[in-house]
Design brief:
The complex is a heterodimer of chains A (372) and B (305).
Chain A (H helix, E strand, L loop, with lengths): L1 H13 L5 H30 L4 H14 L1 H26 L7 H22 L3 H30 L3 H21 L33 H18 L1 H11 L1 H6 L4 H28 L10 H11 L4 H25 L5 H16 L11 H4 L4
Helix pairs in contact in A: 2-14, 3-4, 3-13, 4-8, 4-11, 4-12, 4-13, 5-6, 5-7, 5-11, 5-12, 6-7, 6-11, 8-9, 8-13, 9-11, 12-13, 12-14
Chain B lengths: L1 H34 L7 H19 L2 H23 L6 H20 L13 E2 L7 H6 L1 E2 L1 H19 L1 H11 L1 H6 L4 H25 L13 H11 L4 H23 L6 H5 L1 H14 L2 H6 L9
Classes of the chains: A mainly alpha (372), B mainly alpha (305).
Chain lengths: 372, 305
Amino acid sequence: MSLSSATSDLPARRKLRLDPRSAALIEASVIPLAALLASALIFSLFLTLLGKDPIRFFALVWTGGVASSFSFQNTLQRAAPLILTGLAFAVPARIGMTLLGAEGALVLGGLASALVAIPMVLAGWPVWLGLPIMALAAMAVGGVWMGIAGWLRHYRGVNETISSLLLTYIAVAIMNFLVEGVFRDPGSTNKASTMPLGPDWRIGDMPGTSVHWGLAAGVIIAVLLWVLMERTTFGFAARIAGGNLRAAQAQGLAVGKLAVASCAIAGACAGLAGFFEVTAVHGQANASLAAQYGFTGILVAFLARQNPLAVVPVALLFGALGASGGLIQRRMDMPDATMLVLQGIIFVTLLVSETLYGRLPFLSTEQAGDRT
Amino acid sequence: MSDAIFMVLMAMLGGAIRVSTPFLLVALGETLTEKSGRINLGLEGNLVLGAMIAYATSYSTGSPWLGVLAAGLAGMVLSAGHGWICKLPKVNDIAVGIAFMNLGTGLAFFFGKPFIQPTAPRLDAIALGAWSSNPQVQQALKVNPLFFVGLGLAVLLWWMLKNTRWGLIIRMTGDSAASARAMGVSVDRVRLLATSAGGFFAGIGGAFLSLYYPGSWSESLSSGQGLMAVALVIFARWNPIRCVWAALLFGASGALGPALQSIGFSKGYYFFNAAPYILTLVIMVLSARSQKAAHEAPGELSIVK
């Protein structure tokens, strides 16, 4: 008896003994970082096999995404929609839903804000009244669009992953249909677009920067959603439902409403990203809205472990990769899909790293293990 | 008027056969994978990568059939990666599928850049409509051999799953991993093999896209066919023969827009583009809670739990 307790204590003494919360926090930081490092190594190997210099690649990512104030502002500009689409994946994920439809909600949200703007611009409404209406329209349309996936999941048993992706294709088709048809601006010859909003209706940059307000909105919403998920009854109920659906139902939680609400919040976030793309970047709605932000947001949320606060720095990372893409294409003579390959490698490596939770050799597993 | 209807119907029949082939091949691959109890959402990546590899191989060797083989092998390798990762503990197969969709598409675009311009030898069609003097009938009945490969595969898979020892092992692994283990079957190995074979079929589906219809390689070649095929498997209730009918139905809905355009009705072209997606969604809603589907679904499948 004494012998067995001595041997079982031995390995435990070499491990860090932490309270479960800190152990989980360490796991949630160390494992994704290790996965990032591993994917950088795999990608370097990939580049080396192709006869390209990996050190030059990462140096160019630094130059193109971080080094100068111009490139850093470019990064911030690209991070703004990624924060919102990342949140759009992270929130439903907490209730156990894999919702991929942010791209569709972004496209329809952007389209809705451009369309409601047309009568207001023509009637000469004040901008301070018009922009909030546009933002609300974008959030409402995005929210309803994703809410459909949540509703179908909960009340009809339709898998939300597939339905939300199908809704994305339908959203893009609706946008093309309207932009190429009824709402096409006769002046848009090269690329069918809605009526340009004009300089007054563009949302400006934040003072002292060339970064639009979408970044500030993204950060504020990330904090709000963190509070919602971590500090309110709603978030608590959602996490219970995500952990064990049957238990949540047995407790009398309105699981269906929680699911639909989570999806609607997600869609509203993505719709808002579409609003900023229209008012701050393009000035009108057209096919440029479908710029893969919705899909990159999925990866952002996975890397952030579905934590709304962590979404912000991760979005910056992918913003920097996006910002340096053009430079890498020109200087290293590589196709624009290089970043897609890197993203794919990061994604796969990250999912492989999921298997490490609760099994890190230097953390006491008995305490951390039950918090996976 | 009746002429126009005939033209639309003929164009839809031809279109259904043409458009359905990649659906069919991917759906059969997914059926095999899901029968073993695992879901691979990443077959869209196989489809795109297969299309690129097939086109590149056909261009460099001059043999489109070698391209078909290479596409299948590329799809197999990709899915073997999926199968290998999914056997690790705590890994979610749906998320891995999304990641492989990204990776496959990214690799295809990365290596496919030089092949967007050149023209590669394409697969020849079999002219089954030679008996008719009507050019529309002839056009509609030009059928690619890969369609018959798909049909043959469907029958073979159906027979294999129903009557053979391997089929029994796959079905048992999909219905209850615990009983399969009790019988001494290595669940992970069965699923790895089923996923890899499924990936091979999906890769061939990609070869059809780039080597026959639309018949060239571009980055906008696939628009979610791989994904719709996964939904189609649920609709076909994991039965290879029903996959054939479901794929034809999907093909017809996909051919609706171009068919209407061919008679000069192009008003809602972009809207008809959405028809296959809307149809998929409607079908998913109708089939999700059906008792039959619940009864026939492999018990281990995470998507129906």
